[in-house]
Amino acid sequence: LQKELLKYKQEARNLQGIKITSPQDALQQRLIQQDASVLQLKQELLRASMDKEELHNQNVDLQRKVEERNRLLAEYKKELCQKDRHLQQHQTKLDEMLRQLSEASYQQVDLERELEHKEALLAQCMKREAEE
Protein backbone atom coordinates (compact mmCIF):
# COMPACT_ATOMS: atom_id res chain seq x y z
CA LEU A 1 0.00 0.00 0.00
CA GLN A 2 2.89 2.36 0.81
CA LYS A 3 4.47 1.74 -2.59
CA GLU A 4 1.12 2.28 -4.31
CA LEU A 5 0.54 5.53 -2.37
CA LEU A 6 3.97 6.85 -3.35
CA LYS A 7 3.32 5.84 -6.94
CA TYR A 8 0.03 7.80 -7.02
CA LYS A 9 1.62 10.81 -5.34
CA GLN A 10 4.39 10.83 -7.92
CA GLU A 11 1.85 10.47 -10.70
CA ALA A 12 -0.20 13.37 -9.29
CA ARG A 13 2.96 15.53 -9.12
CA ASN A 14 3.82 14.66 -12.68
CA LEU A 15 0.28 15.52 -13.80
CA GLN A 16 0.53 18.89 -12.06
CA GLY A 17 3.81 19.55 -13.82
CA ILE A 18 5.76 19.79 -10.58
CA LYS A 19 8.86 17.67 -10.40
CA ILE A 20 10.06 17.63 -6.84
CA THR A 21 12.93 15.36 -6.08
CA SER A 22 13.82 16.51 -2.58
CA PRO A 23 12.49 18.65 0.28
CA GLN A 24 15.00 21.37 -0.74
CA ASP A 25 13.49 21.48 -4.23
CA ALA A 26 10.03 21.81 -2.67
CA LEU A 27 11.21 24.75 -0.54
CA GLN A 28 12.94 26.31 -3.55
CA GLN A 29 9.74 25.97 -5.58
CA ARG A 30 7.68 27.49 -2.77
CA LEU A 31 10.10 30.46 -2.44
CA ILE A 32 9.87 31.08 -6.17
CA GLN A 33 6.08 31.11 -5.95
CA GLN A 34 6.16 33.46 -2.96
CA ASP A 35 8.62 35.76 -4.73
CA ALA A 36 6.31 35.86 -7.75
CA SER A 37 3.36 36.66 -5.46
CA VAL A 38 5.34 39.37 -3.69
CA LEU A 39 6.39 40.86 -7.04
CA GLN A 40 2.80 40.84 -8.23
CA LEU A 41 1.65 42.52 -5.00
CA LYS A 42 4.38 45.15 -5.36
CA GLN A 43 3.24 45.88 -8.91
CA GLU A 44 -0.37 46.19 -7.74
CA LEU A 45 0.76 48.45 -4.90
CA LEU A 46 2.71 50.61 -7.34
CA ARG A 47 -0.32 50.87 -9.65
CA ALA A 48 -2.54 51.70 -6.69
CA SER A 49 -0.08 54.36 -5.52
CA MET A 50 0.08 55.87 -8.99
CA ASP A 51 -3.72 55.87 -9.21
CA LYS A 52 -3.92 57.46 -5.76
CA GLU A 53 -1.42 60.15 -6.78
CA GLU A 54 -3.34 60.85 -9.98
CA LEU A 55 -6.61 61.13 -8.04
CA HIS A 56 -4.91 63.44 -5.55
CA ASN A 57 -3.67 65.66 -8.39
CA GLN A 58 -7.13 65.70 -9.95
CA ASN A 59 -8.61 66.57 -6.57
CA VAL A 60 -6.15 69.44 -6.12
CA ASP A 61 -6.93 70.70 -9.63
CA LEU A 62 -10.68 70.51 -9.02
CA GLN A 63 -10.27 72.26 -5.67
CA ARG A 64 -8.34 75.06 -7.37
CA LYS A 65 -11.08 75.39 -10.00
CA VAL A 66 -13.78 75.48 -7.32
CA GLU A 67 -11.89 78.20 -5.43
CA GLU A 68 -11.49 80.22 -8.66
CA ARG A 69 -15.19 79.86 -9.44
CA ASN A 70 -16.10 80.85 -5.88
CA ARG A 71 -13.86 83.92 -6.19
CA LEU A 72 -15.54 84.88 -9.48
CA LEU A 73 -18.95 84.27 -7.96
CA ALA A 74 -18.10 86.56 -5.04
CA GLU A 75 -16.94 89.26 -7.49
CA TYR A 76 -20.13 88.93 -9.54
CA LYS A 77 -22.24 89.16 -6.39
CA LYS A 78 -20.35 92.28 -5.33
CA GLU A 79 -20.85 93.87 -8.77
CA LEU A 80 -24.52 92.93 -8.72
CA CYS A 81 -24.96 94.54 -5.29
CA GLN A 82 -23.28 97.72 -6.52
CA LYS A 83 -25.49 97.79 -9.61
CA ASP A 84 -28.57 97.21 -7.47
CA ARG A 85 -27.51 100.11 -5.25
CA HIS A 86 -26.99 102.37 -8.29
CA LEU A 87 -30.31 101.26 -9.72
CA GLN A 88 -32.04 102.04 -6.42
CA GLN A 89 -30.39 105.48 -6.32
CA HIS A 90 -31.46 106.20 -9.89
CA GLN A 91 -34.98 104.94 -9.14
CA THR A 92 -35.14 107.30 -6.14
CA LYS A 93 -33.94 110.22 -8.29
CA LEU A 94 -36.43 109.31 -11.02
CA ASP A 95 -39.28 109.18 -8.49
CA GLU A 96 -38.24 112.58 -7.10
CA MET A 97 -38.07 114.08 -10.60
CA LEU A 98 -41.49 112.66 -11.46
CA ARG A 99 -42.89 114.16 -8.26
CA GLN A 100 -41.32 117.52 -9.10
CA LEU A 101 -42.67 117.29 -12.64
CA SER A 102 -46.12 116.52 -11.29
CA GLU A 103 -45.91 119.51 -8.91
CA ALA A 104 -44.71 121.71 -11.76
CA SER A 105 -47.65 120.53 -13.88
CA TYR A 106 -50.09 121.39 -11.07
CA GLN A 107 -48.41 124.78 -10.66
CA GLN A 108 -48.61 125.36 -14.41
CA VAL A 109 -52.32 124.54 -14.41
CA ASP A 110 -52.86 126.87 -11.42
CA LEU A 111 -50.86 129.63 -13.13
CA GLU A 112 -52.80 129.18 -16.37
CA ARG A 113 -56.11 129.44 -14.46
CA GLU A 114 -54.83 132.51 -12.64
CA LEU A 115 -53.71 134.00 -15.95
CA GLU A 116 -57.12 133.30 -17.53
CA HIS A 117 -58.82 134.85 -14.49
CA LYS A 118 -56.60 137.96 -14.66
CA GLU A 119 -57.13 138.21 -18.42
CA ALA A 120 -60.86 138.02 -17.80
CA LEU A 121 -60.57 140.77 -15.14
CA LEU A 122 -58.42 142.83 -17.46
CA ALA A 123 -60.94 142.39 -20.24
CA GLN A 124 -63.74 143.51 -17.89
CA CYS A 125 -61.74 146.52 -16.78
CA MET A 126 -61.01 147.46 -20.38
CA LYS A 127 -64.66 147.05 -21.27
CA ARG A 128 -65.75 149.31 -18.37
CA GLU A 129 -63.15 151.86 -19.24
CA ALA A 130 -64.26 151.84 -22.83
CA GLU A 131 -67.88 152.26 -21.73
CA GLU A 132 -66.96 155.15 -19.42
Number of helices: 2
Oligomerization: single chain
Number of strands: 0
| Stretches with pLDDT under 50, minimum 5 residues | none
User: Please, how many domains?
Assistant: 1
| Share of residues in helices | over 70%
Q: Overall 3D geometry? A: rod-shaped
Query: What is the mean pLDDT?
Result: 91
Major β-sheet profile? none
Radius of gyration based on Cα positions:
53 Å
**Helix/strand/pairing category:** mainly alpha
Order of helices and strands: HH
SSE blueprint and pairings:
Blueprint (H helix, E strand, L loop, with lengths): L1 H15 L6 H109 L1
GO cellular component, one term: cytosol
Keywords: Coiled coil
GO biological process, one term: canonical Wnt signaling pathway
What does the model show?
The chain is mainly α. The chain has one domain (1-103). It has helices spanning 2-16, 23-131. It is rod-shaped. This is DIXC1 protein. Keywords: Coiled coil.
